[in-house]
Write a structure and sequence with these properties.
mainly alpha; globular; about 100 residues
Amino acid sequence: MSEFTNRVEAQRRLLKIVNAKKKHGEELFSLSDSAIQRWSSVNGVDPSSRVVDLLKKASDRVFVMANHSDAPIADEYLLTVEELCHIGDELKEVVESEG
């Protein structure tokens, strides 16, 4: 159960970072590929931008968290959590630097 909570909290944290800037007309509601593409398109965010790249990396990491929470692969899960934290920190820096 705690693995699920960690994954959900990680997603919430990343969505809050992106949605904290009110310059976008539509908020990002999910870290799925289709949600990221829609958000990018609706808000005129270049699909090759650093923000979109980081969101896609975060999406991949969240997927790994969802599928690697069993005990035999707990080390991989913990590495993924750490990577996701770094992605979140970098995403925050990029979003804040955009003005």
